[in-house]
Every structure is written in structure tokens, then in C-alpha cells.
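Checked the freezer inventory, then went back to the computational side. Two predictions to log before the end of the day. The first one is the construct we discussed on Monday; recording sequence and C-alpha cells without edits.
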Amino acid sequence: MEPAAKKPRVMSGPCVWWVRNDLRLQDNPALRAVNGAALVDKRNFVCVYVFDRRNLDACVNGFSVTDFSGKKTKALHARFVRQSVLALRDELAAAGSKLLICHGKPEDILPALPAGSEVKCQHDHFQMQDYRFCNDVAASLIKGGSKLRTDFGATGLYHPHELFMPKDLHDRYGGLGALGKVLGWKDILKNGEREDNATHVRPVVSAPSRFSPPMEDLQLPGLIPADVLADETALLKLLGYSSEEITEAQSHMIPQGGEPAARDLLVDWVKNKNWAKAYPDFVNYMMMGCISAREIFSHAEKMPDFAEVARHLVWRDFHRFHNEAEDTGPQLRRQNSGDKLEEMKVMKAQIDSMQKKLEMLGQGIA
């Protein structure tokens, strides 16, 4: 009797990078892994990003999505995501690859990939919502003969393999100081000194030098036409935002999204060494993975304000470890003239009110 045939080591379909909140080429372990597998096994390389309202409208760890003037509008966040996604699309195109941009639910879209596809994504194992999404996608892919592999990637400063065991996770009420002690910082609240056996921060990995060829003419459900992607208002309407939400979101200035803009900020910060000025925008870029926390950290080690940078980055990880949004984080907006005018009106009203109270007090004394 002949022995049973072994299953082939390599799957028959393409290697697929499911792009999530890691919209960058530099320091992206998940991207390097999936593209590397495609090159070694001589398979096509496919990149897919899905605009998912469940993610667009949710609070992101390390970032307070939107909340100004008592009105919430998630379309503001979607504007920044769009810019970041389009920037990645252009970077991949310049490198000879291609990004397919869809809208809907990944568990409905990714199973339409060719049978035998090997999908890989960055997955933050500290986030319960991430578990649910990845489990749903994995289950739907298996039904079509494909599979999902997850990578820790570089969502935060520390890689989970370098961390303490979950049972040793300190009480959240211990705050940043307690976490710093666990990670080997002598006193992170005061300085940037570390113990000799401090938890290791992994080095930055370079962007892929070349990409395996993409699949031509691959069609997926929810694929967004190029003309809609080019029109911010049209895309926001397609995603289901109301005209009121869109108008409100577009009335505010936001940082330019994308890895190139994040790298420009990095260069400016290294040159001018003004962390207080750069940090609010860095938070937004780290939120979408346009730049990694550990790349910022690697530059900070040679900077005079290293201790301040380290505190911010470890504090961001503190919230991530506890599956919390950083409610006190900066907002994804910049002041425009309208915002400034409203602030001046409020200030004037407060001054007028105080002046009246002083006048009444003076009359009473008289």
C-alpha cells in the first residue's frame, strides 16, 4: 500500500497582507514576513485594506478619537485614515506593488480571495476587539480553503515576547511608575535611567527592498473605485456618514496623514529637538501605524529629552496593556480660525462676567 500523500507545505494561493493599523513600509514585521514568504515560495503578493465602520468609529488605544464642543464626529477620524491609506497605496505603487482598498467587513471581503490564500496581519494581542475580528476572519477564510496568520508586529513600544507573563501584569492603579519598575526603568517619572536587565525594546526593521509581483485584475467585494477614493466627500458618504457629520469634520484642520508625513515630522523633530511640539502629531501617526513607537524610541535614545519621550511611549503602552483608550490624549485636529474665534468669544464673556461682579462688589463696598 502506498503511503498517504502529505499535504504540500506551500499553499496554492497568493500571500496576502491584510493591512490594518500598520500603514507603513518601514519597521513593519508583518509586511516583511508575508512579502518574504511570497518571494521565497514564488507566489503573488496581495495587499488589502478594508474601511470598516466598526473600527473607524471606535476609540483607538493611545488616542482619543474625536470630542470637541460636546459633539462627536467620527468622520474626522475617517478623513485622517483615508489620507494615510492613500499614502500607503502610492508608496506601494512606487515600489511595484498594489493596494486593494475596499469597504465593508473583512470577514465578508477576504474570503473572496483565491482559494489557498495565506493571509497575514498585524494583531494586537492585548485588545479584546482584535481577538474577535481576527477570529471571525480566520473562521471565514477556513471555509474557503484559505487561512489567517497573525503577527505581533510593532503595535507598541514593547513586543509581547519580551514582556512579563500576563499573571504578573501589575495592577492598573499602580500607574506608570509601577509599570516602569516592572519593565526595568529605575524611576521613569523622573529620569530615563534603566536597570541592566531592563526589558528589551526590539530594534527597527527596514522596509522590504523588493516585492513579489501582485495579482493582476483581482476583484474583491466592496472594492472602492479610484474616483471615489480621490474625492474625500464621496468616500465619506460611501462609508455612511451624514452630510452634517461630513461638514463638521471638514470644517477642522487635521495633520496630513500617511507614512511620508510622519517621516517628515520625525526629521523635523530630530533636527529641532522639540518633543512637546511634535508629540501631538506623533500620537496620531502611531494610532494608524504610519510610524512605529520603537522607531521614535530609537531616535530618542540620543536626544536630550529622552526621559520625556520614554514616559510618553511607555504611558501609551500602559493603556494598550489594559485595553483602554487614552482619554486624555490629544485630539485629531488643529485649531483653525473658527476655533480660535470661538475661544476668544468664550474668554470675552468670562471677562465681562467677572467685570460685572467686580463692579457690583465695588458698589456694595461703597
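The second is the one RB wanted added to the comparison set:
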Amino acid sequence: MNVRRLSLVVGVFLASQALSQDRPPAVRDDARKDLAALQGTWQLESLETAKESKVDVKNRTLFIGGDLFLSRDGEHVLQVGNLRLVPGKSPRRIDVVVRKGLHEDNTMLGIYEIKDDTLKMCFDPEGEGRPSTFATKADTSRFVAVYKRIRAAGETIDICGKFICTSYGAEGKKKSLPVEIEKRGDAYFLKWTTEGKVVYIGAGIRQGNTLSVAYFNPGNAGLSVYKIEKGPRLIGVFTDVGGPGLVAREEMHLDREVRFEASKGR
């Protein structure tokens, strides 16, 4: 992706963060849960339209990261925009605000269904009327698309959730902080807190059962590398940028208190 396209994507992502604050807290929470299931890259399996289509489904992918979406044909970006979910409806509703590309400046009205690793969507790209079923309609540009989630080999352990992160410094001093890991697109977002305040944030890339994380706060930055084990548990090491080059030990375990509270609520 060239610099111009990267700037566009970053700009649309920042706009999506502002857009997500427009809704009441309860609605935002429901939408966030739905959106978490859509994160990542999806391979187009089939495309149904009322008119004949020559789309090569093998090259078409859909990327969803946060509220940002990218529709691509190979490396070529077809559309960039923001997603807006409407929870509590059946079928589930989704609005796509197209910032650049096909149907630019339109709000595509649609519905979606996600089962395991299959995503089905139906849209009216002209924004004239929301579909009520997953079907095309004569004399319209309405389409039905079915996607399959792209999963990397070896990534069978889910690492999203709330953990306790324990690090061991140069003198063996132990320090523990709550940390939350969430999937964002094909990467991971980490947030360390203390007394409800964010003290570090990080971005992680997973390859199989290895998670590499760049973390920082206003006064410090560094790199952590973890091995992912069943539990899940993340066992790793970290080092600070600009420090003496010390590589120290760090572990993450699921926050049992959080899991206990969640289990009581079921």
C-alpha cells in the first residue's frame, strides 16, 4: 500500500473512532460485541447479483479493523469506509459509509449474519432501501456476498480477554498489572491499566503461537515477545527502548476474578 493510500486508511480509521462515540453507551457496548466477531480478513466465496457479474471471487477480500473496512481486489483497494452496526435487530443490520472507491459518498444499507467462520451480507449499495432478506432484487444493484474468514495456520488458541500481566525486573522485582487483549483487524490491541487508568498501550502481531508486541506510554516504549500456551497463558520476555538492553521475563494469565464474575452472571 502506497503512502497516499495509507494516509487515507489512517484518516478513515480516526474518523470511525469519532463516529462510534455518537451512540448511547449501552448501544455502543452491544455494537462493540458484534463488531469483535467481524474483525480480520475475509475471503469472498460467492457473489450473487440480479445482473450478470464478472467478479473473480478468488481475488476479492474484505478487511475489518475496528470500524474501518477495506474491500480489495488483490492489492487494489476498491472501497474504504466505516461500518456502523445496529444491534438488537433481526436480521442484524449494518450501514457502510463509503469514503472512497465504488459508491463513494453513499451509505450502503445492509444486513449480515455470521456463523462460525462464515459471513453473509446483503446490501443495497445505493442506500435506497435496506434488504429484509438475503436475496437480490430485479432492476436493482442489491447483492448478496458470502465470505469465509482467513485464519493463519496454528492459531487455535484464543488470546482475547482480560489478563494479569506479571513482569520481573533487573533485580527480580515482581510487578503485576491488569491487561486486556482484543483483536483489531488482523492484529491485536493491548491495554495495561492501574486503578482504572491506562498506563501502557500496545500493538501486537501474531504468527502461529508467537505474539510480538510493541508497547509504549508517554515516557517509555519497548518490545515484548510471548509464546502462547493453553489456558491461555502467554510466557515471554521484554526489553525497553533506550535502556541498557536488559531482556526480562514476563507472563500473562487470565484474570480469574473477571472469569468468576462472568460465570456468576450466566
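For RB: The chain has two domains: 3-149, 161-265. The domain at 161-265 is CATH 2.40.128.120 (Lipocalin). Let me know if you want it refolded.
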